[in-house]
Amino acid sequence: MQLHHRHDWNLTPSEAIALQQQLRTEVLSDRPIDLDAVRLVAGVDVSVKNEQSQAAIVVVTYPGFLLVETVLAQRPTPFPYVPGLLSFREGPVLEEAFEKLKSEPDVFLFDGMGIAHPRRIGIASHMGLWLQRPTIGCGKTLLCGRYKDLGEEKGSAAPLVDRKETIGVALRTRTAKNPMFISPGHLADIPTAAELVLRCSPKYRLPEPIRLAHNAAGQFSPLPA
DNA sequence: GCGACAG
DNA sequence: ATCTTGTCGC
User: In this UniProt entry, which residues are annotated as the site Interaction with target DNA (predicted)?
Assistant: First the structure.
């Protein structure tokens, strides 16, 4: 895929924060996804082992979730985990994986936040600026914001609010399981992001594309030189 | 100043 | 995220 808005990754934490403040102004998080036009969905995930990061992007049909493409990329892990700066840890290896991608997914689902982030630019938003396609953040735990109790039934949801601003939704993708925290990355809005994630979760708490990416990234095997 | 804190 | 056995439940 062609990537836009590329920049150096060799930044200190304070430089990274300054870059986020600059990039956040370009994130579009009130744009409905045309759900009827979605044909391909990608799941994105990164796993780390021994200072090495492996990224996996799995593209599946929608609906149906038939495998279309899997790409892997490996790199030394360049940046420690710092809450709020995840994209600077996982971005470099993801950049390499995106460049290998042959198909053109209509939407990308990320393991991590979109605008549900202290500076409203989590990894799904940041990568969305490169991809110039709709992206959605799918967090398993909360980074910031609060939400009220929601029903136990699959499909139940409650707004995620931070500093008086609605930044996403706590969404029950599986009955009686902990909710997922869904937020627009880029070129998406909260209602359609939540709807798509729900439709991508037919059986498990994790959306199917992310589950597949997680499995693909989890098992390290040397890539063909 | 004191917690909280995606993966 | 990662380190890890058995175990409860559909």
Answer: 81
